[in-house]
Backbone:
């Protein structure tokens, strides 16, 4: 499955800069930061031929860091990785970067969402 392979390749590429979780993590502790949560939430499809589908996979990378300095460094590191990131897709787009504070128990951290769209092709009834 191409979608699964893309997510695995993304996890491998990003694990050099942070702890990685696929889809969700419920407990954040300062020593484990920074954390990147990879969510592949939406995969819209379109028939492109009698045998193929085009998929537009929406991925959100949620970055959790202890402060803005660490957050800014992590964003730069991730964007550098994404620039050269390759997998089984034919097109990649950076669609948004959003920052907010997040309460992490005993301290206030920083959450950034990086949103991507990756386009890939499969046979009909495959993903």
Residues:
């Amino acid at each position: 499955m191409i979608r699964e392979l893309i997510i695995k390749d993304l996890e491998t590429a990003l694990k050099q800069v942070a702890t990685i979780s696929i889809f969700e993590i419920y407990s954040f502790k300062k020593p484990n930061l920074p954390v990147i949560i990879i969510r592949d939430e939406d995969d819209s499809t379109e028939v492109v031929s009698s045998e193929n589908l085009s998929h537009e996979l929406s991925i959100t990378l949620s970055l959790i860091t202890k402060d803005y300095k660490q957050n800014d460094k992590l964003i730069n590191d991730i964007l550098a990785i994404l620039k050269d990131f390759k997998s089984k897709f034919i097109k990649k787009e950076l669609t948004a970067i959003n920052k907010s504070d997040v309460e992490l128990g005993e301290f206030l951290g920083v959450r950034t969402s990086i949103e991507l769209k990756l386009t890939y092709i499969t046979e009909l009834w495959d993903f």
Summary: The beta strands are 19-22, 35-47, 52-65, 91-104, 107-123.
